[in-house]
UniProtKB/TrEMBL annotation:
It is found in: Endoplasmic reticulum. SMART domains: P4Hc. The keyword Secreted does not apply. This is procollagen-lysine 5-dioxygenase. The keyword Ribonucleoprotein does not apply.
Length: 735
């Protein structure tokens, strides 16, 4: 596992030298890069492009950042060359370079390499080695394991050789390559030169056993830590106490290098944050509406999803003109058909075109997602924006920001509120499933903000057309029996396409649809546990937090009777609908105190008992603590004993049923009474009178709570309803 750590100023000589070397290099090289390989007294880097993809671009960025002069040997080759052809190119190049025998040349692969320090550091480490050729070391003997015993034993460090990186004097390297017997690969050639004492001594050939210069990650990810010194990220080999410069994700460690690559080469640091985020960014600010890129928005409702209404509203609120968008919708859920169809009908005319695949067309998710790509290309899109119903876009600038980020595929980071569950994975296991990366928690908690190269994204992402219409790169949501997102990401990884997740700003969040049941009316009422944030956004009164704060004075319409806002009117409306839909009302005969009382229904009867108890614990108890001085069940901010409310019920007053309730005491320490509808509008009359004080409250506020003592002092009655129906919720707390 690669760890991460921020170190103090006293970080050791190597790190301090790095900072000095960078300053020197910036002056000497001016931060320029020469891909033509102009020769001078400085260091020259030779590489093979092989497949020119994202990893190759990352390599070039790291060399450019530190001012390396780079020459790519297989530029112009139309097809990927085999190992033998690569060796021939290398021999030819070193023959030309040998005219300057003392010139220092570094060769490395490009696709799996990141430079983390400037050229002067390479020269320093090479000269310190006293070698004429210094080759990177490996923990494995390959490709011919029979040669293992031929390698000299070492007291400390990696014993074997890896030709993916070496540095030396041009003249000596040329002699070695030209005088060596014919081999099929560079690895075998250098291996045979090294294992023989005579040739090893002849060319002064050494291995970088302690990773002072080259760090091969294969088999060594547990040896290294990502660290920071001020504004610089670097890799520390904790096994040998070295700071390697050339970091290579060989073997199956390419994804580890992707993680490190989000930091190294001045990509991210704790002081400046994400510096690579600004690479190749574009701006839409000066573009007129008709000049904005055309995109296809693919909306996928693949499972029953809570708070879908808010999901669709937030799509409507995106600050990107629908006149520049085509709409593709796939709804696989019958439960959502009415809402989704209504939404498509309402907004469809504002888009350039619309394609809606309904649930009864029985199109599988895999094929629907691939069809969205086809639809995008058919309509000359420049981007495809995919969003699933679990992804709530709270930031209306999301589309603009993702386009401006200018990456082939980028996802806005989203998490389930209060959880570590997100729409990306920082790492994966060998069989392609979730693993936690060393920086995952810092990213999901937004302790680190930036743009992160990750192996898996889902739920919401933007893809560029350059990715879609390239046959070699085109994504597909089908691979064996994998879920569509798993298939997409594995296919992209196999093609070497980087996937990014951005948390530069807050974009939105995920809802949890795993256990969402649709068998009831107003099913979101039950979502307090699984989706508390969304539940509160829909139902919690916007002034609740202000009311419960210590500095707020709460209204007291009668002595020791307090008013405070708890619910929005939507909550009260849906509760009335739900209880009336349930339709079973008791006449109070099950409770002698309420014999001949108004009809009532226990909250647990409709399955809301646990939800209501959570409301009492998390929302009502803080108010009771504030109002009733000394009645404190908290230790600090921790509720040590939740309120105990056995009797929680909705009451219905109607003139032709039971219009009032006679004076009574409640069997409670305190009682809450929540008004669910409006006096003077939904009913006439009604209210509550406290007998001892001859104080009546008849102007109830919808969603507000009346909180009062239950026993002894607050004898009270329900006043007569003369017209309409009055609904309240009552809880007897701590009987």
């Amino acid at each position: 596992m690669v760890l991460t750590r921020t170190v103090s100023a006293g970080v050791g000589l190597l790190v301090l030298l790095t900072l000095v070397w960078e300053a020197v290099t910036a002056q000497d090289n001016g931060g320029t890069q020469d891909n033509g390989g102009t020769q001078d007294k400085g260091l020259l880097v030779l590489t093979m492009r092989r497949k020119a993809g994202d990893s190759y671009k990352r390599f070039l960025r790291s060399t450019s950042i530190f001012g390396y002069k780079v020459k790519v040997l297989d530029v112009g080759e139309k097809e990927e060359l085999d190992e033998k052809k690569h060796l021939e190119l290398l021999k030819k190049e070193f023959k030309a370079l040998s005219q300057d025998k003392e010139k220092i040349v570094l060769f490395t692969e490009s696709g799996d390499v990141v430079f983390s320090a400037p050229p002067v550091r390479v020269i320093e480490e090479f000269e310190s080695s006293a070698a004429d050729i210094l080759v990177s070391a490996d923990g494995f003997c390959w490709p011919d394991q029979t040669l293992e015993s031929s390698f000299p034993r070492v007291e400390r460090g990696k014993r074997f050789l890896n030709s993916g990186g070496f540095v030396g004097r041009a003249g000596t390297i040329h002699r070695m390559l030209s005088e060596a017997p014919e081999e099929t690969s560079l690895q075998l050639l250098i291996t045979h030169m090294y294992v023989k004492d005579t040739t090893r001594d002849k060319y002064n050939l050494k291995l970088d056993h302690l990773s002072t210069l080259f760090q091969n990650l294969n088999g060594a990810t547990g040896d290294v830590e990502l660290r920071f010194a001020g504004k610089e990220a670097y890799l520390q080999n904790t096994l040998y106490n070295t700071v390697p410069v050339v970091v290579r994700g060989n073997g199956h460690t390419d994804l580890v290098l992707n993680t490190l690559g989000s930091y190294l080469a001045r990509s991210w640091n704790p002081e400046d944050g994400c510096r690579s985020c600004w690479d190749e960014m574009i701006s839409l600010d000066e573009k007129k509406e008709e000049e904005l890129p055309r995109l296809t928005m693919g909306v996928f409702v693949e499972k029953a999803t809570p708070f879908l209404e808010e999901f669709l509203d937030k799509i409507d609120n995106l600050l990107y003109p629908s006149s520049r968008m085509d709409l593709f919708v796939h709804n696989a859920v019958e439960y959502h058909e009415e809402m989704v169809s209504g939404w498509v009908k309402a907004v469809g005319e504002t888009f350039i075109s619309v394609k809606y695949i309904k649930h009864d067309e029985n199109i599988k998710e895999w094929h629907a997602r691939n069809a969205a790509i086809d639809y995008c290309l058919e309509h000359e899109c420049q981007y495809l924006f995919v969003i699933d119903s679990e992804a709530q876009l709270d930031n209306p600038f999301t589309l603009k920001l993702l386009i401006e980020q200018n990456r082939e595929i980028v996802a806005p980071m989203m998490i389930r509120p209060y959880k570590a569950w997100s729409n990306f994975w920082g790492a994966i296991t060998n069989d392609g499933f979730y693993a936690r990366s060393m920086d995952y928690m810092e990213i999901v908690q937004s302790q680190r903000r930036g743009l992160w190269n990750v192996p898996y994204i889902s739920s919401c992402y933007l893809m560029q057309r350059s990715l879609l219409d390239n046959d070699k790169k085109r994504p597909s949501f089908i691979k064996n029996l994998l879920d569509p997102d798993m298939a997409l990401c594995e296919n992209l990884r196999e093609k070497g396409i980087f996937m990014y997740v951005s948390n530069r700003v807050d974009f939105g969040h995920l809802v949890n649809a795993d256990k969402f049941e649709t068998r009831r009316l107003n099913n979101e009422l039950w979502q307090l546990f699984d989706n508390r944030w969304d539940w509160e956004q829909r139902y919690l009164h916007p002034n609740y937090t202000h009311a419960v704060s210590e500095n707020t004075t709460n209204e007291m319409p009668c002595p020791d009777v307090y008013w405070f806002p708890l619910f929005k009117e939507r909550y009260t409306k849906e509760m009335i609908e739900t209880f009336e839909d349930y339709g079973i009302w008791s006449d109070g005969s099950n409770n002698p105190r309420y014999k001949d009382g108004p009809p009532q229904t226990e909250l647990h009867s409709v399955g809301l008992g646990a939800v209501w108890q959570e409301i009492m614990t998390k929302l009502v108890a803080p108010m009771a603590k504030k109002i009733f001085t000394g009645y404190d069940r908290y230790v600090g901010f921790i509720l040590k004993k939740p309120p105990r409310a056995i009797m929680n019920f909705m009451v219905r007053y109607k003139p032709d049923e039971q219009p009032f309730l006679r004076p009574h005491h409640d069997t409670s320490t305190y009682t809450i009474n929540v008004a669910l509808n409006k006096p003077g509008v939904d009913y006439q009359g009604g209210g509550c009178r406290f007998v001892r004080y001859n104080c009546s409250i008849t102007n109830s506020r919808v969603g507000w709570v009346l909180m009062h003592p239950g026993r002894l002092t607050h004898l009270h009655e329900g006043l007569r309803v003369t017209q309409g129906t009055r609904y309240i919720i009552v809880s007897f707390v701590d009987p």
